[in-house]
Design goal:
Length: 218
């Protein structure tokens, strides 16, 4: 291969490789807590909830005459995706499961509801022609990563790592035994909420960059 061909190939795959490595590091890190809390499918549920936010963004853009491909910064679809992911994280952190309905069942129910809402919104005549663009925005395109995804992934990853470094003891304690955390005087619900928010933000941003299936695997 000539030098020109080598550098052209390197330029083509550089950004996808960097984003994939950042996404793998971030998702595998928060994945430890997902396994500890026995909510393995929370990544799929939060990805779908992010999708509800993106689909809602396109519906609102079509309703109010905004250009969905060049929206104002305050109306970027990323904010909608993060908002719904954080709301879903807050809901799952409440530990709504009980003896007849486990936490994993609650997460599965959230996944089904979110998937249904995405289908309902995307089948609206107002945004039917944008289905391809919505899918790319929802599930990423690992072989054609936008350059701005690298600083976004790096920034979110740094924020998540710093948060976990500062509150590692609290996160591990509420993940292993929330009742013991309450006995020791920790506000377990608050720490559980913060933990789920970091997981939700990480999953939402990584899904946008690399896709839902790689994020679930990571």
């Amino acid at each position: 291969m000539s030098d020109v061909g080598f550098f052209a190939a390197y330029a083509l795959w550089r950004d996808p490789m960097i984003v994939a490595l950042l996404g793998a590091a971030l998702c595998s890190f928060v994945g430890v807590y997902i396994v500890l809390k026995r909510v393995v499918f929370v990544s799929a549920a939060l990805s779908q909830l992010s999708g509800v936010g993106v689909a809602l963004f396109f519906w609102l853009a079509a309703t109010f005459g905004l250009d969905p491909h060049h929206p104002p910064i305050w109306a970027d679809p990323l904010w909608f995706a993060l908002t719904f992911a954080v709301l879903g994280s807050a809901l799952f952190s409440l530990n709504l499961g009980h003896r007849r309905l486990s936490s994993e069942s609650v997460v599965g129910l959230g996944y089904l509801v979110a998937s249904s809402l995405v289908l309902v919104v995307l089948n609206s005549p107002r945004i039917a022609q944008e289905a391809h663009e919505v899918n790319d925005l929802l599930y990423g395109n690992a072989v054609a990563v936008a350059p701005e995804q690298i600083p976004i992934m790096a920034g979110v990853g740094a924020a998540v790592f710093v948060t976990h470094a500062l509150f590692a003891k609290e996160f591990v304690l509420v993940s292993f035994d929330a009742e013991m955390a309450r006995t020791l005087g920790y506000r377990a619900r608050r720490w559980n909420l913060l933990l789920f928010i970091t997981i939700g933000v990480a999953i939402s941003v990584a899904t946008r960059a690399t896709g839902a299936l790689p994020v679930f695997g990571f």
